[in-house]
Amino acid sequence: MSNLFALIRRHRLNFLRDRVAVFFSLLSVFITISLYILFLKKMQVDFLADVASDSKQLTLLVDKWFVAGILSIIPVTTTLAQFHIPIHDTERKVTADFLTTPVPRAILQLSYMCNAIITGFIFSLIAFFLCELLIVVNGGTLLTFAETVRVLLILLLAVILSSTMNALLTMFLKTQNAFSIISTLVGTFIGFLCGVYIPLGMLPTFVQYIIMYFPISHLTLLLRDVFMSDSLADIFANAPPEVLEEYTLMFGVVFKMHGQFISPVVSYLFSIGSIGILLFFLIFLYTRKFR
Amino acid sequence: MPNIIDVTDLRKNYGNFEAVKGISFCVKRGSVFAFLGANGAGKSTTIEILSTLLKKSAGHVVINGYELGKGKHNDAIRRSIGIVFQESILDDPLTVKENIMLRGRLYRLSKDTLEDNYAFVKKYLQLDDIEQKRYRSLSGGQRRRTDIARALIHRPQLLFLDEPTTGLDPETRQFVWETLNVMQRDTNMTIFFSTHYMEEAEQADYIVMIKGGEIALEGTPNALRTQFAKDRLEIVFHDEKIGEALLQQLHVSYRQKQEVFILPLASTKEAIELLETMKEDIASFEVVKGTMDDVFIAVQKNELDVLHQKSDKSVSVYE
After folding, report:
1. Nearest-CA distance from A94 to chain B in Å?
2. Cβ of A97 and B89 within 8 Å?
3. 3-state secondary structure of B280
4. What is the C-alpha to C-alpha distance for residues B19 and B9, in angstroms, rounded to an integer?
5. What's the pLDDT score for residue A289?
6. Do residues A222 and A71 lie in contact, with contact meaning Cβ atoms separated by under 8 Å?
7. Which residues of chain B have pLDDT under 70?
């Protein structure tokens, strides 16, 4: 195992010391923050102005919506950035150097995957900490222990799901230029695919379905469920149920697919199932590629 | 076990293209071995096969007593060999020590062994001043020292170097070879290298030249030079026309390069007679000793008579 750990450490150091790579892996996050400050926050506050009289509580709810979105984007972009390393290694013949050591190729591939999961999770944890800080500063309360555990579990699922997805997405790329293109595309689309850049309800129905079938959006949904449930209960306590339903559907706090509301359990199962399927394809393609 | 490498009828095909066409050679343990050839001759392919990076199509290779491509033997071979690649392939953001130690850990050495080995390579490659520097900030020569240290961190018995000094300044090239020679002498490590610099090849104990996937020539540098690199006399005449007429009159074969007439010599003594005969007309002259460069170029141009005569195209020369 020591050679696996050495490889993971090597990959992580390479990433963390490349400040440009770190910045670009978080670019989508900065864009999301900008969009939120510019108009996303105001849009939601206006939407709910008639329902909630307490503007402070309302702001807090909207902040939590935003925090859940950010936390579901970070696992995707930070794990994707890790898959620059195997492409760089192949292009610059570093892989050849590794393969002249007794390290099996499977361990080398596993090390890239583990690095993506570990580094992605570390970044997600830091982001989670900062998000909690933001909520507390804005007058909210810290999540309970049980909720914190749920968030950590969801983040772990998000990181594993994103890593397998990104490994598949990048496994046939041969050049760092090709990786840059994929990275830009993912960075651009992930905000839409998680329903963070534009509220879900504002999109055409077929796009909504694309998003709802995109596994990571279910983790956004689960995070929103954890973060927002108490605020939703407070704000919509005296409002008619239709108003709550309209808001939650509009802003992607719940999904309604083919006339059915999706429960958190279904979202968990969908995410875990997606990981299983993606892993199967990944291993299948790896064994074919390196046979 | 005198040979560290035994290659028998090694072949490598890429589809219908045969890159290596059944070559056989051996490398003595503790020797310095030069593997030469023009680009595309099959040199890198052979090195990649020997270093377990590429699968052979056919043939038999035994390295350090282990059979290449047989079960767990490849792992044992990998522990026996170190490779210095042509390119600098270590990690720019990491320091020299981090690079070497992280690669060292891939060989599953104990912590103490790894520390000892690091102290060993640090001493020979003079890494004291640069061990905490990032690889990115190193000069070409410092990078090469680090690359060699990385290749030696597990103390291999056989070191492959694929054009290790290409693009380096003469001082660094000299340092690299001096260091390698000292280490080789102290540790009895075998060095297997390829190069385009023939003066480097002359330092080898034995040379194999490959051309078109086949061995064209092999032998000790001295024997090859003596046999195939003819000395020559280079003359500039006061008057080219008179010089030309004179040479024709003397029935001396020559070729002309601008104003210089180049005359092949059977021996350097032959020059004395020729110079004596033509001394009135000569403006300047030089007797040039044959070098490995000449041998290499002759092989590439198929100029060695012996190549045409031998049916198997391969020539072995021993002293």
Report:
1. 5
2. yes
3. helix
4. 13
5. 79
6. no
7. 1, 303-319
